[in-house]
Structures are given as C-alpha cells and as structure tokens.
Amino acid sequence: MNEKKIKLAGTEEVRDFVREAGKCDFDIDISYNRVIIDAKSFLGVLSLDLNRELTVKYGGHDMNFENVLSKCNFLNDGTGFLAARKYRFIR
Fold it and tell me: Which of 57, 50, 61, 62 is nearest to 87 (CA)?
C-alpha cells in the first residue's frame, strides 16, 4: 500500500487528480483525520477541507497517476514542506 501526503489547491487540481484516479484499476482513498473518501469521486474529494494536508492511499501502480502526484519540480520552502506548483507534498 502506497501513501502520500498532499494538499490540493483548488477545483482545477481536484479535477486533474480525480480524472487520473478514475483511470486507475485499483482502489485509491483520500482522507483527512477519520474521514475516508473514494479518490475517484469528484464531489467526495471536494467535500474534504482542501486547506488541510490530505493522505492518499493506493494499492497499485499507474505511471499517469504517479505523475499527477509528483508532477512539478519541488522546492524546499524552508518550513519543512516540499512545495510543488500544483500540489504540496509533505515530508
């Protein structure tokens, strides 16, 4: 089971994330605290607090989905976060 911490910055990022998740033939969950949502559900992902760090768990491998998770060049912003242009990955 793979796990990544991300922060989605708006509806366009959610749309791109859900679109690629929907193409995968394995389960993908996105969660915050005790709320777990199917990552293939646009409305479900939008119902999460997008201002928070979200946890993505998935049990397969798909290059396009992996690219969405690690799409941009990362910069260390000095706060312990690895920031990307579209997604924010937490160390």
Answer: 50
